[in-house]
Amino acid sequence: MEQTVRDARGRSLPLAERLGHGAEGVVNRVKDSRLAVKRLFRRDADPGQATALESRLRAVARMPIEDLPIARPMVMLAEPDLGFVMELVDDMVPLERQMLAPYEVELVPWYLATGGLRRRLRILARIATTLATLHTRGMAYGDPSPGNVLVSEPTDQDQIWLVDPDNLAVESDGSRPAVYTPGYGAPELVNRGGRISTLSDAFAFAVMAHHTLFAVHPFIGDEIEEGPVEWEEAAHAYRVPWIDHAEDHSNVSTGGLPGRNRLVTRTVTRYFRSTFEEGLLEPRRRPSCADWAMALWQAGDAMIACGSCPGQRFATRACPWCGASSGSDLVCRIWLHAGPDVFSLDRAERSGDPDRVVGVRGWDIPAGELVAIDRGRPFVLTGRHGEIRPAAPDRPLSTVSWDGDNRIQVRNVGARPVLLVSGDRNVQRRLWPEQDAEVELRPEVPPWRLCFTSDPLSPHRQVTFDLIESTGTVR
């Protein structure tokens, strides 16, 4: 029988499938619409629950989140239901579907068929970026958990939509009680009655990231998985070490994906350890969501499709799924060009020779970022790669295409001109919007570079293109 609720405006809303659940209630799609309904669990001993929810939703409506992928509350539900209606995006499914394979299928084939490691890294990077942006605006999300996150259903996409807006709070608001999903709440919330904060968000995100990347909860070891429910409750209260603890091996897990540490970068591995060991009881020692965002974007960008199996691997390394390597990989290294020193530029300008001014070199500082290019699949360099302070990190700037030989195609898809400069700096090509160029990569000469500027003397970001032989090792 179809279940129906009514909103405060009298509209009848037929409920479709459940999209997620959190600490306070469940979220259902509204049939044949772009709406969803969150129904809260009623607390009989709290007659003011509805008034408090309405007050919270009014506060959320005033928060600066219009540019973020967070559902906005629209209208309260009518009695006897307690909850609200919110906007929804098409073709989204719960993040939980990216965590655990259905019982009837094998884990690794299912994992690769649902987007593999690269897609999960990018989904998590988007979540971390959204949380970090909230944090810079003085807000905490409150209950980051897989039941409160929707992701693109098509496996070639990685968009997100957060559906728990009623728990958003200004971090300095100490009057709000902590709300968390069991298994994801930070220790200071679970055990010490603390208040939500950016650091409790960061802990919950780390648990969610671990579960999504490796298909295993970081505190559910083998014995707890097979033991009574009380043991799981102890794990959710962090009375046991995490499954990959550096010294305490009493809660190891053989579940999830094999070889967890070789599937991600050393930075991501270090961040898990910092969160679940030093940061377990000392929140300020945890990586922030901004730290996580940077590490996850960089890890996802450094991955390419394996040519021998459905999986992905890190550039210049063998595939962790099948052991194959490609011989050579095309990688883009990102640099910050800090501009020339004042004295060299002054001497060149006083010489009256414009070629000498252009030839003045500045300081190229490695940004520590690497982008790997798939054969036959253009990679889009965005504001995140090419701008020092990107106002729109996802805005396309240039595409790089490579078919596996020693030539690459670069196309300017942004709104401003860019420069292609040869490694010896003897050749400069200005690419106007929608203009492209082909360059040849030769190992005996310095690599070509793409400068995201029309003025080579100004501070800007740039990428260099290198063909690198694979080592044939997994890590």
Automatic annotation (TrEMBL):
Q: Which GO terms describe its molecular function?
A: ATP binding; DNA binding; protein kinase activity
The source's domain of life comes to Bacteria
Fetch the InterPro entries from UniProt.
Kinase-like_dom_sf (IPR011009), Prot_kinase_dom (IPR000719)
**Where along the sequence do coiled-coil regions lie?**
none
Fetch the Pfam families from UniProt: Pkinase (PF00069)
Give the keywords, sorted.
Answer: DNA-binding, Kinase, Transferase
- Sequence ranges assigned to domain Protein kinase in this UniProt record: 13-304
The protein, known as: DNA-binding helix-hairpin-helix protein with protein kinase domain
